[in-house]
Structures are given as C-alpha cells and as structure tokens.
Design a protein that fits this description.
The protein contains 10 helices and no strands.
Length: 249
C-alpha cells in the first residue's frame, strides 16, 4: 500500500510540475515579488516607526509573500484539481482499483504541503541573502504557525472542492475569496495601520490570524494564543464539514 501511494504521489507531483501557471503563482510569483519590490522600492528597506522600527520587507512583506503562496495553493490549485478529477470520473474509476480515492486526496494534500514548504524556504532564504531579511527569530514558533496555518487554508480548499458543482465555479469562488482574505491579512494595508475595528475583524479570520502569526514569529515574538486558537478553530470546523460533504462522484 505504501509503495502504491508513493507511485501515486510521484505521478501527482509530475502533473503539478507540468502546470506552469500553478508553479508560477505558488512559487515564482511570491519569491519574485519579494525580491523585485524589495530591491526597487527604497521605502521597503527603511525602518518604519509605525511598524516598531522594522523595515517593511523584514517581517510584514515577507510574511505576506509566504501567505500568498499558501493561499494560492489552498484556494485555487487544490480545489480545482480535485473538482476536475471528479468531473472527469477519475475518482470513480479509482474506486474500482486497489488505490482508493482517499489515497488520491492524501497525495494531493501532500504535494500541496511540499510545494508550500519549498516556496516558503525559497522566500526566506533568498530574502535573507538578497535583501538581508532576518531569518525567523523564533524558528519553532514559525514552524508551528506555518503548519497550522497551511492546514487551515488547505481545509478551506477541501471545503470548496466538496461543495463546488464544477471546476469553473470553484475557480471563480476561490479567486473571489482570495482578495478579501488577503486584504484582511494585511496584504495591501499592513495590520498595524488598519483601523481598530478592521484589525479586530481580521484577528478572527483565517488569513488575518495566519498572517499576524507569521509576522510575530519572523520578528522573534511568540504568536498570540488568540491567533493560534482562531486557526485551530477554522481548521477543525472546515475540515469536518469538508469530510462530511465531500463527494467522490
């Protein structure tokens, strides 16, 4: 069974790499934006009093690029792949073979987690080498927030795949959700600059909690218990609902 799963995961990995747009938006775009904007916009490399003396590129912008990669995978790549497989009858045909449909789901999750780890590693390492972005001041805290946040976003993607009637719908809904969720995370207006009421709303959204947790860990601070609890709650709720509603055919 382990050997079969390994082969399935290898096939899924090759299929992922054959999708240039998925590779671009999940890996190339976040890393490219970090380096391009960090090098060309001087203000990104200046200490900002409103950010506690940090440079914008150090924690806020780097955290947003990590978040962008994970959200792209969770709200676009993963649900689209699963719905397309369901539309084409791949999952139904798998049910007649020794490889169960659940194995394909597990392989898809594994590939997306691996890609998010690769994208995040490149973001941190190249940001550090090229822009002098400090590596996470709290490595264990960063890993904990990253794992919990990634699982939360992927669980939301599974829920989208569970309820979407077609690949066109899931792509449209995923793209529509991305923009407000990225905004609430601080992608275009950093959370410290948000009005109090907006920042409070952001605290209880999955991306707001994820983004702030990443920023805290990158800055050498422990993530706030509220944000960890919010992520855990979203992951549990969406994961359970997705498992209950998911259709193989």
């Amino acid at each position: 069974m382990t050997k079969s799963f390994g082969k399935l995961a290898a096939v899924e990995a090759r299929l992922f790499l054959r999708e240039p747009m998925a590779v671009f938006f999940a890996i190339v775009l976040p890393v490219g934006l970090l380096l391009a904007l960090g090098l060309t916009i001087p203000g990104f490399r200046d200490a900002d009093p409103s950010l506690g003396g940090q440079r914008f590129v150090d924690a806020p912008f780097t955290a947003m690029m990590v978040l962008l990669s994970v959200v792209t995978l969770g709200l676009s790549v993963l649900p689209s792949s699963l719905v397309i497989y369901r539309e084409r009858g791949v999952l139904r045909r798998l049910s007649t073979t020794p490889v169960r449909p659940g194995a394909l789901l597990s392989a898809q999750l594994l590939i997306n987690v691996v890609v998010s780890v690769v994208a995040t590693t490149l973001t941190l390492v190249l940001g550090h080498l090229v822009l002098g972005v400090p590596l996470p001041g709290s490595p264990l805290a960063f890993v904990a927030v990253f794992v919990l946040g990634t699982l939360t976003v992927l669980a939301i993607g599974l829920l989208l795949a569970a309820v979407a009637p077609s690949s066109r719908v899931v792509q449209g809904v995923g793209s529509t959700l991305m923009f407000p969720l990225l905004f609430l995370a601080g992608m275009w207006l950093p959370r410290p600059l948000m009005p109090e009421i907006l920042r409070r709303i952001s605290d209880f959204t999955p991306t707001g909690a994820f983004g702030q947790g990443l920023m805290d860990a990158l800055g050498g601070h422990a993530p706030q218990p509220l944000h960890l609890a919010v992520l855990a709650g979203w992951a549990l709720a969406t994961g359970l609902v997705a498992a209950r509603l998911f259709r193989w055919e």
